[in-house]
Structure prediction request, 223 residues.
Amino acid sequence: MAILTTENLVKTYGTGENTFNAINGISMSVESGEFVAIVGQSGSGKSTLMHLLGGVDRPTSGKILIDGNEINTMNNDKLAIFRRRQIGIVYQFYNLIPILTAEENITLPIELDGKEVDKERLEDVMNKLGILDKRHNLPNQLSGGQQQRVSIARAIINNPAILLADEPTGNLDSKATDDIVSILKLTNKTYHQTILMITHNLEIAKEADRIIQIRDGKIVEEV
Prediction:
């Protein structure tokens, strides 16, 4: 079953003769539980696509359906709630709040939603990601790889429909990169978590179930 579908997705910037399509008619689908890598050169449109799928930006035209919900038609308030509950995002630079502990960073989406933290799931996720013993540490007391593990834990704690990882290893050394790719694969298999990962690294992309290559805002190859 498709958990994510886009239909003729277009994102246009500029006005008049200076307009250009950063995303130019992308139609794609991702099955529940898939691990998909999106690759492309700088300027290919892959980051723009990720922003659209994550509800951070809105398309000029076309549709985005996540778990049957057409997010491009939602108002800002409804979209904010949907994103918090159903879309997990992992960034290259972690985006952790420096004054919160690892555990507090992970549970922040739940707290913002006014819900009670499932302590059993929290401990399970932190244990599987190898950061249970770092739960009381602040971000500046963690290595880059550990911070990214906290970021991944925060992204999946709500059991979202999809996890979007935007160059998740771009700020890490080779050892930490291998660790984070292994963590993403573990998350995919253990929790049946659907993952879309943007990367410029083809070796990392090969670890996914499927690779989608984009160029000039269009899908040019799928393998």
